[in-house]
Input
Amino acid sequence: MPFVNMTPHVLNVFTDWSGVSDEPRRQEPLAAGESQVARAYNGWSTSPMPREALTLYPAGGCSLRVAQTFEPVGVLDGVALYQARYGAVETVDNATKAVLGGLPPVVEGTTYVVSGQALEAVKGMGRSDFAAPGELVRNDAGQPVGCKGLKVN
Output
């Protein structure tokens, strides 16, 4: 199996973008010189919805959890600013929340799909077998329903 879903959620990866709608999801008036296609693809609206199949990866039995601390770095307009520092990375059983160990073993040909936070935490650990959900795909109500591919470090 090329991908192992190490999140507690079903992962819906949209894989066919050949039939992507270029219609914007909001109906605000276009700005002078703005095209509907540019608006849809330049982040003005939610991601365009594919019309084709997606790949489903069931929720895994384990997740990768990352310890995190926040260090204050200042205040801006009365709001505290922090930087996140990542600590230990643990594999956790999704049902019992029991810690099972650290990183999963390297398995040739396997990529572990983890949260974006976990992907950032393992970035400097010399492992290239992790990915996280890519750009979100949202339904008409703005709720995430999947992602466009996977992002890697």
